Amino acid sequence: VHATSNIGTLMPALSPSQIQLFRHNGFLRLPSVLPDERVEELKNAIWQDINNEVEPVVRNADGQVVRISNAIDRAPIFYQVATHDLVLDPLESLLGPNIELIKNRHNHATLRTKTEKEGGLHRDVKQWSRPIFTIIFYLEETNLENGCTRIVPGTHHLPGTGGSLYDMAWANELNDQILPVPMPKGGMLVIDSMLVHGPGKNTTPDTR
Questions:
Q1: 149 phi and psi angles, rounded to 5 deg
Q2: pTM score, two decimals?
């Protein structure tokens, strides 16, 4: 998939140092952020579908909608942002020009509140296949207090797993190597889908 848009500022390709860091660590903060107006459009679209409980959704133990699935097939803003130059230009530095948007992996918007538990460490894919990367878009600032993403650098190089995405016998050995990754509003984090990661716990009264 390749599409262009006139929103935001055109981002140059990643530098050799940035590419090397991604290859080595399995994650990279993209050097630009989404424009504020696009962040607000995304948040409005998400809240509209959460408030209207537009299926498919995921609910927490209290019955509150905390995830809307199949985001790309919802409001046009989701596809527009996912295929924007701010996303595709750096991805082309990592993947080359033939980029495919995969709809069956992380195609959702998630709301994390104080009632949610800390997310378990996991991978997005079990085994190596063709290169699959995940981009996480942050529509609110994330930090230690509200449960920023946690990653274990370099774990995309470790063996695959034949069980569940959470079933990694060696994962507990790496608990003391977890690195929190705070992100700004509008920030974008690209990770290798074999990288071990998970959300932190939101201890604030606000959303994340």
A1: -60, 140
A2: 0.87
